[in-house]
Amino acid sequence: MKRVAQTIRLRPEHREEYLALHRATWPGVEAALRTANIRNYSIFLRGDTLFSYFEYHGEDFAADLATIAADPETQRWWKLTDPCQEPWPDTGAGGRWSDLVEIWHLDEESHT
Q1: Residue 65 covered by a domain
Q2: Of 56, 78, 91, 98, which is least surrounded by CB within 10 A?
Q3: Phi (first) and psi of residue 83, to 5 degrees
Q4: 59 phi and psi, to 5 degrees?
Q5: How far apart are CA 45 and CA 89, in angstroms?
Q6: Which tens digit of pLDDT belongs to each residue from 20-32?
Q7: CATH code of the domain covering residue 40
Q8: What is the largest CA-CA distance in the chain?
């Protein structure tokens, strides 16, 4: 399993629109994420900064991301959400969202 954390800015003038979209996320968008082996996906907000976290349970991350990008419903969703976001200058290979580097993780311990 691969843990992924990313961040992007939320344009203040689109805040309510973005929040409303995510209060009623389209089932087809959620299905595309599940089909691409994405689990435990959350988006958090602090001020105008969005933070996302998800877990990837597949074998080919790049191919699964390409499957999401090719999904017509997800493409329509992004046409609504992308204008609400303002990428950081260092988006790199992560697309619009900037990847964060994991520096620490508390593993689950087995209790016997």
Answers
A1: yes
A2: 91
A3: -65, -15
A4: -110, -25
A5: 19
A6: 999 999 999 999 9
A7: 3.30.70.1090
A8: 52
